[in-house]
Amino acid sequence: MVKSTETLRPYEVVILMHPDATAEQQKALFAKNKETITTFKGNIQAVETWGKRTLATQIGKLKKAVYFHAVYEAQPQAIMELERTMRINDKVLRFMHTALDERTPMSKHVESFKKGLAESAQREKEREAKSLLRRQAAQQARMDRDDD
């Protein structure tokens, strides 16, 4: 069975842009990406900006990047063109495309991703709260020692 090149497949992409990228440069990247996707008869389901965040590991001397997440449908050839244009864009630090399960509706992918993101944010808040309590306890112990 030969697959048609006209088949639209679901994808998601995470893009890390240089922290100094202007809003115009960010908009230009997404306008170019949208144009490429529509050229290949695709459509964008969702685009989210996560803002400037600390990187897990530095990229060069950079410790922060502007994060974006998008979910869309496109022909497989669109991915090659998207990656080619992002590789030559100086403001794009990293990107990763992932093919999503075609049997699951796009809205379910977006919903499960947002749920996972919310759970991750909640775990981070809990870690920060525990860390704060530990610091306060240590500070109180130092103060008690100094009073003796």
- What coarse outline follows from CA principal-axis ratios? elongated
Major sheet: 4 strands, antiparallel
What's the CATH H-level homologous superfamily of the largest domain?
Answer: Ribosomal protein S6/Translation elongation factor EF1B
Proportion of residues in helical segments = 40-55%
By helix and strand content, what is the structural category?
alpha+beta
Task: Tell me the β content.
Answer: 25-35%
In angstroms, what separates the terminal alpha carbons?
Answer: 82 Å
- Strands of the widest sheet, in order across it, are 2-3-1-4
CATH class of the largest domain: Alpha Beta
Q: Which residues sit in consecutive blocks of at least 5 with pLDDT less than 50?
A: none
CATH architecture of the largest domain: 2-Layer Sandwich
Count of helical stretches? 3
CATH topology of the largest domain: Alpha-Beta Plaits
